[in-house]
Backbone:
């Protein structure tokens, strides 16, 4: 059983949703990320989504764009991200780590070599934002061979028929993009998300996470009531930005926010969610 | 002489019949976009397939090209330039004489007609030199559509005349300050706008890049260039040219020119990239000459990238060629060996710019001045019975402040 599967199974038995914080690896420096990751776990993260910086992040809003630019300026690369995961795994065998990024850095490393090194480092899942399943080979086969889950995005524009096809290619969980737009946009419609998730569940038994547009504890609580996982990205990166003048503060400042999100997500469970 | 009416009916097994149903040109092209865009792109592909088979759509497109754009554009025998350079005859396809001053309008007219048929009321575009932005703003005004143009901050400064033109035409020009602040970042920002406003917005990509069906669609709308040129040279010279030369940034004018000649093996095709300060300096915009394949902006193609797959900054005297990628069909033509891709430096380009201006009384844009520079080299190696056609893809009005500054003329506003 993969780490993602095990974690989602355990949470389902507890009636809780997973909390998935996103941080851009290397923002503002690799060393800060190394110290931040265990703090995220202590604050209640079930899965860590680690952003692989790319020079041209077409699906990201300004907050995550800036995070990527800071990381690249600090010398971060795909190999550097894998190094960070390797270091994290030395002290944490249970928390799933999912990489999120764009295809070109992976293509430049080579799909087979990337899958080998990611598996050795302890990566559990990979989201390639600009790689729909139609364009998935040869990377998908390479990931599956090494037991890494390909995690796919679904969006408000995805037809039910297409959801079925994507779900059949995905593993670990499905990631529902809660709005038409880029990361960090601010118009979350919980009712529309609930309807879409009902549609997703007619085509797949995989857990469904929701992300893009979850900005605070309140929206995290509302999404936790209907989804299997709550993904928070830009709002967390904004906490990193708030402490840039004193980077030593970043791990504590971000962890405090993640703990607040954890409380909100678990409050939804306590209220008796519809999951 | 061949019969012009049969020219566009080539058998489907030939090179010119690409892409396949998945939008691939051999290993290049495809559809590498975030899931939110897959639905809209499939909708666009279906609409394009439907309307490109619709005679009424074609008739309207042709009428717009004739009455609004001013087609056909002339094929001009540059006799004084040919004599000065020595060697082959140089002929210029005068896309600079189109309405708005470049070939870009062929595509914006076609896509805007498609947008209105799809019920879209707002169009967006990215632009580098501003020629595509002006062409998009122009058709938006013509058809009563709202228009937003994304332009890198650096280009907003160096192409100021075109920024004014777009604003005069009623478009909103948004300066892009992310990344390298040039064309590639403008394209990223336009994609972000599109994904946020997909219900009412149509994205007019200005070059033969992007996810399928853009490379095919933009090529089809521009392929009128080569069809006309082929017919014109057969009519005027009684035979096909020996070589055809065009500049390549994203590659829309080049593919528009090449396409009618792809299946004429006796016609050599040359694409000329921007070598900037020289390929050896790394300060250039020549992915086909000095890059390697990767994935950017929705397609697999040759890219300027570092060892980690990060896209590298580009340099060229011409904003319109300042792009780290290239249309996937060019990548395929390069690998097939059907077209030869080479480059011209800023210095060679400026010399060709000046020569055409002084000798023929035609001020070319800096982009096709790259093609002129290479065509002059080819001409010198050939005899006066040989014919070389250059796609003069745009006029140089927008570049006058840039050239004046480089030549130290000074005292020009802007």
Residues:
């Amino acid at each position: 059983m993969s780490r993602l599967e095990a974690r989602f199974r355990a949470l389902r038995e507890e009636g809780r949703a997973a909390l998935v914080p996103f941080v851009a690896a290397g923002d503002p420096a690799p060393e800060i990320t190394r110290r931040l990751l265990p703090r995220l776990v202590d604050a209640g993260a079930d899965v860590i989504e680690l952003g692989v910086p790319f020079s041209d992040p077409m699906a990201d809003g300004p907050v995550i764009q800036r995070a990527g630019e800071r990381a690249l300026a600090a010398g971060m690369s795909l190999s550097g991200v894998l190094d960070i995961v390797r270091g994290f795994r030395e002290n944490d065998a249970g928390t799933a780590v999912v990489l999120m990024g764009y295809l070109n850095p992976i293509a430049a490393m080579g799909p087979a070599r990337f899958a080998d090194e990611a598996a050795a480092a302890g990566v559990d899942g990979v989201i390639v934002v600009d790689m729909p399943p139609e364009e998935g080979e040869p990377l998908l086969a390479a990931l599956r061979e090494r037991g890494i889950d390909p995690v796919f995005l679904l969006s408000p524009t995805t037809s039910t028929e297409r959801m079925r096809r994507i779900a059949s290619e995905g593993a670990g969980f499905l990631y529902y993009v809660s709005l038409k737009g880029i990361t960090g946009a601010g118009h979350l419609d919980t009712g529309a998300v609930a309807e879409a998730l009902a549609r997703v569940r007619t085509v797949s038994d995989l857990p469904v996470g929701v992300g893009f547009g979850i900005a605070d504890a309140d929206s995290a609580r509302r999404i936790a009531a209907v989804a299997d996982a709550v993904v928070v990205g830009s709002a967390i990166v904004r906490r990193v930005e708030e402490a840039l003048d004193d980077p030593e503060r970043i791990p504590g400042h971000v962890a405090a926010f993640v703990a607040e999100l954890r409380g909100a997500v678990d409050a939804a469970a306590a209220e008796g969610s519809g999951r | 002489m061949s019969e012009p009416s049969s020219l566009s009916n080539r058998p489907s097994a030939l090179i010119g019949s690409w892409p396949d149903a998945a939008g691939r040109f051999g290993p290049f092209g495809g559809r590498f976009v975030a899931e939110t865009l897959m639905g809209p792109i499939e909708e666009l592909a279906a609409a394009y397939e439907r309307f490109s088979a619709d005679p009424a759509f074609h008739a309207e497109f042709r009428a717009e090209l004739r009455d609004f754009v001013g087609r056909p554009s002339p094929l001009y025998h540059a006799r004084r330039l040919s004599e000065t350079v020595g060697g082959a005859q140089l002929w210029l396809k005068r896309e600079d004489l189109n309405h708005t001053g470049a070939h870009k309008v062929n595509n914006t007219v076609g896509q805007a007609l498609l947008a209105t048929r799809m019920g879209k009321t707002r169009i967006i575009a990215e632009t580098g030199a501003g020629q595509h932005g002006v062409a998009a703003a122009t058709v938006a005004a013509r058809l009563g559509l709202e228009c937003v143009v994304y332009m890198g901050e650096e280009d907003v400064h160096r192409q100021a005349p075109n920024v004014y033109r777009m604003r005069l035409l009623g478009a909103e020009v948004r300066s892009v300050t992310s990344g390298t602040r040039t064309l590639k970042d403008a394209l990223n920002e336009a994609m972000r706008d599109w994904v946020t406003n997909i219900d009412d917005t149509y994205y007019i990509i200005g070059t033969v890049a992007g996810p399928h069906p853009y490379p095919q669609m933009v090529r089809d709308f521009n392929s009128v260039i080569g069809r006309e040129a082929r017919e014109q040279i057969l009519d005027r010279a009684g035979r096909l040219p020996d070589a055809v030369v065009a500049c390549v940034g994203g590659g829309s004018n080049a593919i528009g020119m090449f396409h009618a000649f792809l299946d004429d093996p006796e016609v050599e095709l040359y694409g000329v990239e921007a070598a900037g300060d020289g390929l050896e300096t790394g300060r250039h915009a020549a992915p086909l000459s000095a890059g390697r394949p990767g994935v950017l902006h929705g397609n697999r193609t040759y890219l300027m990238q570092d060892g980690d797959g990060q896209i590298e900054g580009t340099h060229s005297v011409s904003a319109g060629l300042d792009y780290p990628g290239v249309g996937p069909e060019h990548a395929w033509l390069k690998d097939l060996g059907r077209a030869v891709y080479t480059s011209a430096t800023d210095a060679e380009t400026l010399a060709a710019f000046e020569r055409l201006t002084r000798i023929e009384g035609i001020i070319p844009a800096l982009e096709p001045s790259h093609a002129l520079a290479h065509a002059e080299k080819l001409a010198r190696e050939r005899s006066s019975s040989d014919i070389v056609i250059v796609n003069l893809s745009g006029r140089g009005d927008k570049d006058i402040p840039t050239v004046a500054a480089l030549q130290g003329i000074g005292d020009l506003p802007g």
Q: What stands out?
A: Chain A touches chain B through 43 residues (CB under 8 Å).
